[in-house]
Design goal:
- There is one protein chain.
- This protein is 32% helix and 14% strand.
- The protein has 10 helices and 11 strands.
- The longest helix has 21 residues, at 274-294.
- It is globular.
- The structure holds NADP nicotinamide-adenine-dinucleotide phosphate (NAP).
- The site of NADP nicotinamide-adenine-dinucleotide phosphate has 29 residues, from α9.
- Keywords: Oxidoreductase.
C-alpha cells in the first residue's frame, strides 16, 4: 500500500561496504527513516548530503582529495542519505562532475538534486578570489543548462531540478516554465525552488507543481518559520534546509575569525566577522550543552531539531569528511524531547546578517 506523503517509515538499508558506525554517538545509523519530497516526489532518507563544499565556497586554499569526497558520497548512500544536493555553479561545474563520477555504478541508489539559475561570470572575480556569480533565469539559459548538467552528472535525468535563485530581471513564470520543459522532456522528474517567498512559490505553482523549496534554515537562521515552512507543510512541498549546521559554526568549528580557512566564503559573511562571531559563540555553546546532556553531538542536535520541524523537512548538511558524515547520519536516530526542543527554540537570534 502506498503511504501518504510525508509519513516516515523505518526501512533497512543494505549498508553494503560501509563499516563506519559512530558507535560512540547517540543515534543509530543501521537504518535511516525515510520520507517523501512533496506529495509526489521521490522517497529519501530524512537527512541528505550537500556536496557543495567538496568543490566550492569553503577552504579553497586547501587542495581537495577527490577519493575521500567520493568515499563520503558512497558512505552517504550506504547510510541511507540518498538525497545528494549539488548545482551547476558549484565549481563552477566541477561539483556536478564529481557527483557524477561518485555515482557511476550507483546511480539508481541516489536522488540527485541539482540547480540552475546562478552563473559564474568571472572565475576569480568574487570575494577572496572565488568565482563571481549572479542569477540568470533567462529561459534559453535554463534550456541549455539541463543538458550540460546531465552530461556532467553522467545520467539522463535528475530526480530534482531546482531554481537556485529567482532572477530579478526575469518573471519567475518564464524561468519556471523553462524548468518545466525539462520535466516534459523526461530530463527532470520534479522541480524545486531555492530562497523564495510564499508569493514566489504561488506564482511558480500556477505554472508547474513545486516539489521542494530549499532555504537556509538552522538554529541560527529561522526566517522560514514565519511563512515558508507552514506554507510548504500545508501544500505538500518538501523543505530542504541548507547550511543546517550554520556552515560549521553551530557545531563549534570556529571560535575566532582567524580560525576560518583562507579563501573561504565564510570570511565575508557578517555573522563570521570577529565581533559577531564572538557574540555568537554563546549560541554554539547552547547547542553543545543540550548535546552533552543527552549524549549526542552538536551536529546531531542541530539536525534533529530541523527534522523535528515536520515530516516534510529534509536537511542537507555538507561535508567532505567521513567522520562528520557518520556523525550527521546519526541524527536520524535521535529524537529530541519536548524539553530539549524548548531549550533549542529559546536560543536567541544571532549577531549579524546571514549574507
Ligand atoms: N540553495 C542555496 O543557495 C545553498 C546555499 C548554500 C548551501 N547549499 C547546499 O547546502 C549544503 C550544506 O550547506 P553548507 O555546506 O553551506 O553548510 P553546513 O552543512 O551547515 O556546514 C558545512 C560545514 O560544516 C562542517 N561539518 C559538517 N558536518 C560536521 C560535523 N558533524 N562536525 C563538524 N563539522 C561538520 C563541514 O566541514 P567539512 O566540509 O570540512 O567536512 C563544513 O565546513 C551545501 O553542500 C549545498 O549543497 C545551498
Amino acid at each position: 500500500m502506498n503511504e501518504p506523503p510525508g509519513i516516515r517509515t523505518i526501512r533497512r538499508h543494505p549498508l553494503t561496504g560501509c563499516d563506519r558506525q559512530p558507535a560512540e554517538h547517540h543515534g543509530s545509523t543501521d537504518s535511516m527513516r525515510t520520507t517523501t519530497l512533496g506529495t509526489s516526489g521521490p522517497e529519501t532518507g530524512v537527512i541528505g548530503l550537500g556536496a557543495m563544499g567538496m568543490s566550492f565556497a569553503y577552504d579553497m586554499a586547501t587542495p581537495r582529495d577527490e577519493a575521500t569526497s567520493v568515499s563520503v558520497i558512497h558512505a552517504a548512500l550506504d547510510l541511507g542519505m540518498t538525497l545528494i544536493d549539488t548545482a551547476d555553479v558549484y565549481g563552477p561545474f566541477t561539483n556536478e562532475e564529481l557527483v557524477g563520477r561518485a555515482l557511476a555504478g550507483r546511480r539508481d541508489r541516489a536522488v540527485i538534486a541539482t540547480k540552475v539559475g546562478m552563473e559564474a561570470i568571472d572565475p576569480t572575480g568574487g570575494p577572496g578570489g572565488s568565482p563571481l556569480v549572479r542569477p540568470n533565469g533567462r529561459p534559453e539559459h535554463v534550456r541549455a543548462a539541463i543538458d550540460a548538467s546531465l552530461r556532467r552528472l553522467g545520467t539522463d535525468h535528475v530526480e530534482l531540478y531546482q531554481l537556485h535563485r529567482v532572477d530579478p530581471g526575469v518573471p519567475i513564470e518564464e524561468t519556471w516554465g523553462a524548468l518545466a520543459e525539462a520535466v516534459q522532456a523526461g530530463k527532470a522528474l520534479h522541480l524545486g525552488l531555492s530562497e523564495v517567498s510564499v508569493e514566489q512559490i504561488r506564482r511558480a505553482e500556477a505554472v508547474h507543481p513545486v516539489t521542494t523549496v530549499q532555504s537556509e534554515f538552522s538554529l541560527w537562521t529561522r526566517d522560514v518559520q514565519a511563512e515558508v515552512l507552514p506554507y510548504c507543510a500545508e501544500h505538500g512541498i518538501g523543505l530542504l534546509p541548507y547550511s543546517p549546521l550554520g556552515r560549521g559554526f553551530l557545531v563549534g568549528r570556529f571560535s575566532s575569525f582567524d580560525e576560518l580557512p583562507l579563501n573561504d566564503q565564510r570570511r565575508r559573511l557578517p555573522r563570521f566577522q570577529q565581533d559577531a562571531l564572538r557574540a555568537n559563540l554563546a549560541i554554539a555553546g547552547r547547542v553543545r550543552e543540550v548535546a552533552d546532556r543527552i549524549g549526542a553531538t552538536p551536529a546531531q542536535v542541530a539536525l534533529a531539531w530541523l527534522v523535528a520541524q515536520g515530516p516534510h523537512v529534509v536537511p542537507i548538511p555538507g561535508t567532505k569528511t567521513p567522520a562528520y558524515l557518520a556523525d550527521n547520519a546519526g541524527a536520524a536516530g535521535l529524537t529530541l524531547s519536548p524539553a530539549d526542543l524548548a531549550d533549542l527554540d529559546a536560543i536567541p537570534a544571532p549577531e549579524g546578517a546571514r549574507y
